[in-house]
């Protein structure tokens, strides 16, 4: 029970966004059916895509928690990055694609206008629900980023669930504003085509968000180093240990949002024997694990400093 409660708290951003999008999506489709609004239909599709995205991210998190095995000795953490990339593709293909198509269709074949009251009511409710989800996402991401700037924190984040929901909710709020303007303008100027233009604008926003998410997810999927502060701390710990003459290099890669593989090349003092070297490596691994719990796999290679630089400079 405690584990379940902890996971719900851990994924509060995803659960909050999922609950909001499911309710909003149903309301938008009902409003679109009553009024024939293109931008409302587009917003309904947008909410459904977002709901599916949250389910995929929750599924990805579940799969990424599997323990290492023979086939995957470093675990399944990066499976979350795969599903994050799938989410970006879905936003582009379904969210943006359907929005732009529906907008173009309503410009070419405009439908008769009906009372916009239902649309305004649904949009108002949607802003409240989406705003609540957005507030949760902003609060959680702000707490995790510390003093780092927002854009830098997004670029350096290794947990796609946080910044994907933040991007989605921001795009959703912008889409709601555009949809409201489109509904108002189409009735004020008695021109249904303006509602279609609003739908295309929403699609363009979704396409832009999808491209940004795909770029960030691709970097995580390929493999990104951990933050420079952690790398510097690893180097300092190893360099300060008795028997280590120099640290040649520290190479890291995230195998999950909270798991890092590190490979260290260190030059040992010439007086250190093979047995002493083994004990030093064991002690260093324990010390690194204690001070930096995110280091899930640590490999320390004894290597003369000059040999390490020659190997680094040699062509692949």
UniProtKB/TrEMBL annotation:
Pfam families given for it? Answer: Cation_efflux, ZT_dimer
Transmembrane stretches in the record are 12-34, 80-101, 121-142, 163-185, 197-215
Domain named Cation efflux protein cytoplasmic: which ranges?
Answer: 227-303
Q: Does the keyword Metal-binding apply?
A: no
Could you name the domain of life of the organism this protein comes from?
A: Bacteria
Topology in membrane: Multi-pass membrane protein
Primary localisation category: membrane
Ranges for domain Cation efflux protein transmembrane come to 17-221
Family per record:
Belongs to the cation diffusion facilitator (CDF) transporter (TC 2.A.4) family.
Q: Which NCBIfam families match?
A: CDF
What PANTHER family does UniProt report for this protein, alphabetically?
HUEL-CATION TRANSPORTER, PROTON-COUPLED ZINC ANTIPORTER SLC30A9, MITOCHONDRIAL
The protein, known as: Cation transporter
């Amino acid at each position: 029970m405690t584990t379940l409660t902890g996971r719900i708290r851990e994924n509060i951003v995803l659960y909050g966004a999922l609950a909001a999008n499911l309710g909003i999506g149903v309301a938008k489709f009902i409003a679109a059916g009553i009024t024939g609004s293109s931008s409302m239909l587009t917003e309904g599709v947008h909410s459904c895509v977002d709901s599916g995205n949250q389910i995929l991210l929750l599924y990805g998190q579940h799969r990424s928690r599997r323990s290492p095995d023979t086939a995957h000795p470093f675990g399944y953490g990066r499976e979350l990055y795969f599903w994050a990339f799938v989410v970006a593709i879905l936003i582009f293909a379904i969210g943006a694609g359907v929005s732009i198509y529906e907008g173009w269709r309503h410009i070419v074949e405009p439908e008769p206008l009906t009372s916009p009251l239902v649309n305004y009511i649904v949009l108002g409710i949607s802003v409240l629900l989406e705003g609540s989800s957005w507030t949760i996402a902003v609060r959680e991401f702000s707490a995790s980023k510390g003093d780092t700037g927002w854009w830098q924190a997004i670029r350096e984040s290794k947990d796609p669930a946080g910044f994907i929901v933040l991007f989605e909710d921001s795009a959703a709020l912008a889409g709601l504003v555009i949809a409201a303007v489109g509904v108002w303008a189409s009735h004020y100027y008695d021109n249904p085509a303006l509602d279609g233009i609003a739908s295309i604008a929403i699609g363009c926003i979704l396409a832009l968000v999808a491209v940004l998410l795909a770029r960030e997810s691709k970097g995580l999927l390929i493999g990104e180093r951990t933050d420079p502060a952690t790398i510097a701390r690893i180097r300092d710990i190893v360099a300060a240990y008795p028997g280590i003459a120099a640290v040649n290099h520290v190479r890291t890669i995230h195998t999950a949002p909270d798991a890092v593989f590190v490979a260290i090349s260190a030059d040992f003092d010439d007086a250190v024997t093979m047995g002493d070297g083994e004990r030093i490596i064991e002690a260093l691994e324990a010390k690194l694990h204690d001070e930096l719990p995110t280091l899930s796999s640590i490999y320390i290679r004894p290597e003369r400093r000059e040999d390490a630089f020659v190997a680094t400079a040699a062509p692949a």
